[in-house]
Known about the structure:
Blueprint: H1 11-25, H2 37-44, H3 48-60, E1 64-67, E2 71-74, H4 78-104, H5 109-120
Amino acid sequence: MEFNFNSSEPIYRQVADQIREAILTGSFAEETQIPSTTEVSKQFHINPATVLKGMNLLVDVGLIEKKRGLGMFVTAGAKNRIKQQKRDNFYDDKVAKLVKEAINLGISAEDLNQMIQRGYE
């Protein structure tokens, strides 16, 4: 995990994003324990309350769960939920804007598809 203390993005969000990315890449496998709040706070010199706030963001959306007396665990299906969310965001942030710009430039759907295919080559 890496944190940018000079970023405008709050550290607790960076914590959540780093854990989310680790789940997506398989560094934190589903149904396995993630590092504790104390471990993360000590390793990266972050206030434990800040780390917990970031982890609670993921608890709230069901990507990790608290097991009383045991710690935090990645939930089953978390990787697929993250992947689907990223796909939805990709469409909203990139594809919809691309299509709108193509329409403004008079690029047909067929021409746009050909351009995209060219990018894959």
